[in-house]
Design goal:
Elements: H1 2-11, H2 13-20, H3 22-26, H4 31-49, H5 52-58, H6 78-81, H7 94-99, E1 121-126, H8 134-144, E2 151-155, E3 170-174, H9 188-195, E4 201-206, H10 218-228, E5 237-240, E6 245-246, E7 251-252, H11 258-271
Parallel strand pairs: 1-2, 1-4, 2-3, 4-5
Antiparallel strand pairs: 6-7
Helix pairs in contact: 1-4, 4-8
Length: 275
């Protein structure tokens, strides 16, 4: 199908890059740019149709209630949030559900694909891990939506698998481990307060917990800190992985459940947060 072809093509960028090169792939009419745009158009049709199967999957009773919407949430994107891809209660994405793709690099709709974005655009990727993972995917996704980042900040103490560099934007690597709630140089919220402004467009991604670790998770602590702080007003779009107890995929964080993650994220969506 066209959607499957687009999904596979956007994922195949890992193989295309060394052969064709990023400038040609992402130029107007370039195969990767066209694939990302076509994939988004397919997701937009899925969102518009809202078939019975999706509605049934989303009809899950709310067990974990958020007391109220975060006080510092900028709800200016609330209307656009309605057109993002639906969050699924099993933690999977639409490419996995519909196409059986265990790996899809662009299974989401980003805000610039739904509404016009102005101002300085900044990507902050905490837990960047491999360059060929989220950093490259997010950079290219926004560029294909005609909203390339003016600057990108990658936080990860490990050495990258490939140099952090692309002709699409300026990349800054911060080789450090982050902390939660310390309000010092290790705290991402403190860094945001010092380096971005309310009128900037900030996409924040946070994914730091190891898949096979046990006990409390930093991701849940960070989300709680972000929602309770005034720093949330600086964040326009949030990508976050929330680990929970799921032995089938070797997630052994007993303090949280899949239902809890789904409930929290869908309520934040209802508040107007692009998450």
């Amino acid at each position: 199908t066209p959607r499957e072809a687009a999904a596979l093509c956007s994922t195949a960028r890992l193989l295309l890059d060394p052969v064709v090169g990023v400038p040609k792939l992402m130029a107007p009419g370039g195969i990767l740019r066209r694939a990302i745009v076509a994939h988004d158009a397919a997701l937009a049709r899925v969102v518009a149709a809202r078939d019975d199967e999706i509605d049934k999957a989303l009809d899950v009773p709310l067990l974990y209630e958020v007391d109220e919407c975060p006080f510092s949430l900028d709800a200016s994107h609330a209307n656009a949030v309605r057109f993002l891809e639906p969050l699924l209660p099993d933690g999977r994405n639409l490419d996995f559900r519909d196409l059986g793709l265990g790996l899809s690099m662009h299974p989401y709709r980003v805000l610039p694909q739904v509404e016009a974005i102005t101002g300085r655009r900044v990507l902050v990727d905490v837990g960047a891990n491999e360059w060929l993972g989220s950093p490259k995917a997010l950079i290219e996704h926004y560029a294909a939506a005609d909203a390339p980042f003016h600057e990108v900040h990658l936080f990860d103490p490990r050495l990258p698998d490939k140099p952090f560099a692309t002709p699409l934007t300026t990349v800054h690597h911060h080789p450090m481990a982050v902390a939660v709630g310390t309000r010092d140089g290790r705290d991402v919220l403190a860094w945001l307060e010092q380096n971005v402004k309310v009128h900037d467009y900030v996409a924040l991604k946070f994914d730091v917990d190891d898949d096979f670790s046990e006990g409390p998770t930093m991701e849940w602590g960070f989300l709680a800190d972000l929602l309770a702080s005034g720093t949330l007003e600086l964040v326009d779009e949030l990508f976050i992985e929330l680990h929970f107890f799921s032995p089938g995929i070797r997630w052994l964080h007993t303090a949280h459940s899949m239902q809890q993650a789904f409930d929290v994220l869908r309520q934040l969506r209802s508040c107007g947060l692009a998450v």
